[in-house]
Amino acid sequence: MSDPLTQLTYQAFQYSKSVLSLAHKTLSNQVLEMVAPPTPERRPQPLKPEVINKIRDSLEKIYQRDWEEAERGVYPASILFDTPIEDILRYYPLLWWDMLQMQERANQKRYQEFAREIDTEGYPGYYLQNFHHQTDGYLSDWSANLYDLGARI
């Protein structure tokens, strides 16, 4: 697997995902600012250049470690290119819709809302909150799918 072309392809793949992630974050902040402005204490603050550089350096180290571990057989190399495009295309529009709901919950400090069909019985209190103001916390398939997509982005 130490083919330089494959490694270059992997790096290009990872960097392109980073660019798409940054574009998503920038656009979503702008849309939310117009449609459902955050409360002053929740308004995003720009990152300092040195923080951006640290993030970039950390990502490069992660990409390099992933590559090296796949080469050593710690896990299959195919995982390096594993991105479920079908799921992204399917759930991305829903992520935008849910983002507006999340913003409203966050602005109104509503941290414990779940759909009626979710059985919350038996869960410790820690789980009975909307982590990151996410719809249904982590307790529904809907929420889990959107969380997976959001984590990939």
TrEMBL record:
GO biological process: methylation
This protein's name: UbiE/COQ5 methyltransferase
Organism, scientific name: Limnospira maxima CS-328
Gene Ontology molecular function: any one: methyltransferase activity
UniProt keyword terms in alphabetical order: Methyltransferase, Transferase
